[in-house]
Amino acid sequence: MNAFPGSVSVVIPVLDGGDALGELLEQLFAQEVPLDFDVLIVDSGSCDGSLELARRYPVKLIQISPHEFDHGETRNLGIRQTSGEIVVLLTQDATPAASNFLVHIVRPFEDPRVAGVYGRQIPRPSCDVVSARNQNAWLVGRREPACALLGDRSLEDLAPMERYELCAFDSVCCAIRRSVWSECAYPRAVFGEDIAWGKAVITRGWKIAYEPSAAVLHSHRRSIAHEYHRTRICHATLFDLFGLATLPRLRDVLRAWAYNLKTDLPFVWRQASPGRERMRQMLRIAALSIASPIAQYRGIRAGARTSLER
Question: Among residues 13, 132, 267, 275, which is most buried (max CB within 10 A)?
Answer without folding.
Answer: 13
